[in-house]
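Changelog entry: the PhzF family phenazine biosynthesis protein record was regenerated in this release. Current contents:
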Amino acid sequence: MQSLNYYWINVFTTEQDKGNPLPVFVLKKTLSQTAMQKIATMMNQSETVFIENLNNDSPKLHIYTPMQELPFAGHPIIGALQIIKKLKNSSCTDSLETLAGTVNVQIDQHQQIYWIKAPITPKQRASTLDIPLTSQMLNIPESQIVSAPQWLNTGSEQLIVELSDANAVDSIQINLDLFQKHATLYAGRTMIYLWARDHDNVYTRYLYFKNGALGEDSGTGSACSNLGGLQVLEGNNNFEWTIRQGCLLGRENVLFLKVTANQEIWIGGQNRFMGKGELLWAD
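Regenerated structure tokens:
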């Protein structure tokens, strides 16, 4: 039996009742993958993150949903950064290790924004959805779909689609049969990221299929990163956007997306520290 220290962070917000909740475990010694998966399932948050080798120059992160380990996810990395900074009592670290590779990080000390760089070069592939079929899957008019959904990957592959405006994003009613058929990456991983842009402001939702039901994530950094990847592949760079997500859930998240002139993709967010606890666990 070992005592595991964990912390609660609301990511992508400075408020106590908004953002995306995150348990952050700091490991004194390694845990098995089975144990980490069981703990993440018990925590039942969108993700739980485990920090290994805290005092190394590049600490290692293990990111788990209640169902599986992820190679990369923005909300747990940005939340973990604040805990690393708090415990190391320093300017933190320049990089972190994930399954997707090394993630470079920066901290804006003035605005308290934690920034992470997409770990891999953007990759894009076509989906099996055209605009008429997307219209059927989302139950919205074809005129509200800007282009057919595409699979994007800057660390964690996801299906993304641009809609005409925020009202269209909020009005979707997903056909679950079509959703499972066309938005499944592999068994247990069915998702879509919907976005609509108004100048430098973007409104988004991230929906997924889990345990036979439709779910929604309140703040998704990896999808924000993939949106940046799409812009890079379309030749758009040197911009900063503000992303709003989770509004219909009553937990607004604010994410920052920055694509530099040399096509680096950075995702940023602020955090609200909520507390800490102890878990007794026999691995």
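The two ends are 7 Å apart (CA to CA).
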